[in-house]
Amino acid sequence: MLTTSTQQPEAAQARYIVDAGDYHIGLLKAGQTLRILDLQGNQAADTLFFNAADPSEHYSAMDTMREQGNVYLSTGSLLRSNENNVMLEIVADTCGRHDTLGGACATESNSVRYDLEKRCMHACRDSWMLAIAEHPHYGIHKRDISHNINFFMNVPVTEDGGLTFEDGISAPGKYVEMQARMDVIVLLSNCPQLNNPCNGYNPTPVELLIWDNL
Ligand SMILES: [Zn+2]
Question: Is residue 37's pLDDT more than 90?
Answer without folding.
Answer: yes
